[in-house]
Amino acid sequence: MLKLRLKKVGRKRQPSYRLVIMENTTRRDGRPVDQVGYYNPITKQSYFDVEKITKWLSYGVKPTQTVCDLLRKAKIVETNA
After folding, report:
1. What is the pLDDT of residues 14-64, one digit of tens each?
2. How high is the pLDDT of residue 81?
3. 78 in any annotated domain
4. In the predicted model, is pLDDT for residue 7 greater than 60?
5. Helix/strand/coil for 11
6. Which residues of 28-44 are buried (b: 16+ CB within 10 A; e: fewer)?
7. Cα separation of 32 and 73, whole Å?
8. Which residues contact 19 (CB under 8 A, 6 or more apart)?
9. Which CATH number goes with the domain that contains 63?
């Protein structure tokens, strides 16, 4: 089952995350199927590839709760995805 989740990158105490499509059994920093954006919690900077995200969501990919909150804040999805 594919999931839309965050992959941690960056240094210690300076986290940055990539928004990726991964198999749910893959470890957090494993190899993604596709990268669809990024999020930096320190500077609150984010980028989401809306076309790719909507395409993958239409295929049945389930976002994690944190990703769903980020997408709701960016007005990409309206309710629970």
Report:
1. 999 999 999 999 888 889 999 999 999 999 999 999 999 999 999 999 999
2. 45
3. no
4. yes
5. strand
6. eeeebebebbbbeeeee
7. 24
8. 4, 5, 6, 7, 35, 36, 37, 38, 39, 48, 53, 67, 70
9. 3.30.1320.10
* Alpha-carbon gap, residue 38 to 46, rounded angstroms: 6
Looking at the structure of the chain, the number of domains it has is: 1
Q: Which amino acid belongs to residue 3?
A: K
**Would you state the structure tokens that stand for residue 42, as one six-digit string?**
């320190």
Cα–Cα distance measured from residue 79 to residue 81, given in angstroms and rounded to the nearest whole number: 6
Q: Which residue range forms the structural domain that includes residue 29? A: 2-73
Q: What is the pLDDT of residue 37?
A: 96
Q: Is 35 in a helix, a strand, or coil?
A: strand
The predicted pLDDT at position 80 comes to 54
- pTM, two decimals, is 0.85
